[in-house]
Structure formats: C-alpha cells, structure tokens
Amino acid sequence: MSSTTPTSVSPGASPTPAGRWAPVLALGGATFSVVTTEMLPVGLLTSLGDGLGVSAGTAGLALTLPGLVAAVAAPLLPVAVRRADRRGVLCALLLLLAVADLLSALAPDVIVLLVARALVGVCIGGVWAVAAGLAVRLVPAASVGRATAVVFSGIAVASVLGVPAGTVLGATAGWRWAFGALALLAVAVAGTLALALPPLPAEHAVGVRELGRVAAVPRVRRGLVVVGLLVTGHFTAYTYVRPVLERVPGLGAGEVSTLLLGYGVAGLVGTFAAGTLAAHDPRRTLCAVAAGVGLAVGLLVLAGGSLGASALLLVCWGLAYGGVSVSAQTWLSAAAVPRAREAVSALSAGVFNTAIALGAFAGGRVADARGVTEALWLGAGLALLALPLTRHRD
Questions:
Q1: Domain that holds residue 183
Q2: Where is the Major facilitator superfamily (MFS) profile domain (predicted)?
C-alpha cells in the first residue's frame, strides 16, 4: 500500500486550480470553526464558572460533554443523512453550530449551557465524519494529500489562532461575547460552504451494518486502534504538559504560553508535512508519527529543568502530533474501498473523540495518584504501543 487511489473530481467542481481549492479552503474553515468552538472553554473556565455560579469542575463539563456526544454522533450522523447532499449537510451543521454558540452566549444557567454544548458535539462529530474524506472528491489525485492537510489544518489553526483569540475576547468583553463571535463565524462559514462547494451527492448510503463491515476489515481495524492509542496517549500527556513545563526554573506563565504557541505552530507545519508524505506512503508516515510522539513525550520528562531541551522537545511533539490526523485519514481511506470512505471517516471521528475523552480522564487519574510526570510516561507508552501496528505490512 503506497497511496490512496482517488476518484475523479465531483461534477460541478470548477476545472480551474483556484476553483478546485476554494471548496477545500471552505472545508478547512469548517473544521477550524468546530475545533475552536470545542476547545474555547479551556481558556474561559474561570469566567464561565463565575458567571454561572458553578465550580470550575462543573464548568469543565462544557469541554468534556461535546467530545462524548461527538464520539456517538460521528458514526451515527452519516446513517441519519445517508442520501442527503453533503454540501447541504455541512451547511446545516454549521448553522446548527451557530445556534449552539448563540444559545451558549445567552445561557442563563449551566443546564442550558450544557444543552448547547451537547449540540456542539453533534456538529463536531458530523462535520468530521462528512468533511474528513471529501478532499478526494474535490481535487485531482496528485493534490489529495495537500488538500487533506488543508482540511485537517483547521485543528492546528484553531489551537494557534482561534482559541487564543476567543480567550482574549472573553477576557476583555466577557465570555458571552466570545461565544457570540463564534456564532457569527459559524454563519459566515456556512455561507462560504454554500457558495464554494459543488453539489456533493452521497456516494453510497451508509448504514449501521456497513459500519460494522468496514470496521471488520483488518487494515481499517488496525488503523482505528492506532488512532485510539495515539490520541489517547497524546491527551493523557498533553492535558498535563503545563505543570511539567513549569518545573523549568524561572519559567513563568507568559513563557509557558509562548512555548505552547510554538507547539501549535509546529503542529500546523507537521500537518502539511505529513499530508505530503502520507500521500506516497501512509504506513511509514504514521509509523514515524507514532515514534515521534512517543519519544518526544518520554524525553520531555527526562529533560528536567532544561529550557532548551524542553522547548526543542515540545516543538518535536507538535510536529509529530500535527501529522496524526492527516496520515491516519490517508491510511484509512486507502484501506477502505471508495464506496466506504465516508463510513471509515465516521468511524475514525468516533474513535478520535472517544480517545480525547479517555486520554484526559486517564491522565487525570494517573496525575492525581502518581503525579503529572507519570501521566506523561503513560502517554508516551500508549503512543509507542502503536508502533508495532504501523510497522505491519499488508
């Protein structure tokens, strides 16, 4: 297995290079919007709790709940909209996201906020299930790797730009305005999708039985396990990376934030680098990604109080993890027959979101019982467990 074998560009797509990339960029805007909305409470937990009169732990459910709902929604939404045009589905999901953000901004209490955040989870799972595998229908074969990287770059751009900007707006104008701004963004992205995407009729109606059949394919099953191990390992460790960095003598909150910004930029670079490499050999690319994540996290623990070593390893971690989504999607798309691409994207999105929640939970339990460095060791070990699976040749 060396690369995917894409189908031709969908009817209705523009034959010009600019016309082919406009829909891809619109999909990147959609993933940026849902990831920014998903992660925004990280920077607003204190003000959310104070504004709604609840503890920080209760306010943290605003981050946990969407991930859990997304894990369920990702495989089920393609079944529910099995014959609908995918352009219409994506536009509807972004409009629902706008409603959820507006409801969050106006929430009088935490119950209403959590209802809104559950709707966000539906949007997250649905957008990833539908959008992740669409690049192959929008650009020529030679450009699929780069186009897939653009779609997945929404994750890194949200970390580098979206969440920090929302946090600043929340700190200056209040957390309700931050959610209100995201509602406007979602409406704008929905309009962009409606204008930029060609008609995208469902290639194949996805049913529950088909999800089971696709998951039973050995290469797909192995790829999903790799995704589960890597993402669980990453979030087990990354949830507690700040206190580990704070061990470095003289490193204050501002310097830690700068290091994490560097991590985010490295993740964006890693996404595009992995997209290019995975288009030629997804197995080896994912193997390198797994080794990079595991080694960077493990060595970060050993770096101790060295600022230089910690900064270098954090950048290496960002580079490696930035390649997880795009290389895994390329592997899984190659493992599935063309008619099952959306089914495998839905399964991958479900596993991914489950792993996020599991990683954060496992890291918390280990950090409480054994300390934050042990959480990083566990994360590194889980990532390295994926290596034997990526090294297996089909």
A1: 1-6+14-202
A2: 22-394
Residue 211: both structure tokens together: 């999800």
Q: Which two tokens stand for residue 299?
A: 């060595």
- Give the pLDDT of residue 353: 85
CATH number of the domain that 275 lies in?
Answer: 1.20.1250.20
**Locate tokens 């995917």: which residue?**
4
Does residue 69 sit in the same domain as residue 159?
yes
Of 179, 202, 225, the position where a domain reaches its end is 202
Q: What Cα–Cα distance (Å) separates residue 160 from each residue in 35, 39, 200, 233?
A: 11, 12, 31, 21
Q: What are 249-304's pLDDT values in tens digits?
A: 777 767 777 887 888 889 889 988 988 888 888 888 999 999 999 999 999 988 87
Q: Are residues 388 and 340 in the same domain?
A: yes
CB neighbours of 314 closer than 8 A, spacing ≥ 6? 241, 245, 259, 260, 262, 263, 266, 296, 300
Q: Identify whether residues 183 and 258 lie together within a single domain.
A: no
Q: Where are the alpha helices (DSSP H) in the chain?
A: 17-39, 41-52, 56-59, 61-80, 86-106, 110-131, 135-138, 144-157, 163-173, 175-196, 208-215, 218-238, 241-245, 253-278, 282-302, 307-322, 324-335, 341-370, 372-385, 387-391
Tell which wins on pLDDT, 88 or 21: 88
CA pair distance 197, 78, nearest whole angstrom: 18
What is the pTM assigned to this prediction?
A: 0.79
Please tell me whether residues 169 and 294 are part of one structural domain: no
**pLDDT tens, position by position, 294-334:** 999 999 988 877 888 888 999 999 999 988 988 888 888 77
- Check whether residue 242 and residue 314 sit in a common domain: yes
In this structure, the answer to whether residues 267 and 195 fall within a common structural domain is no
If asked whether residues 237 and 362 sit together in one domain, one would say yes
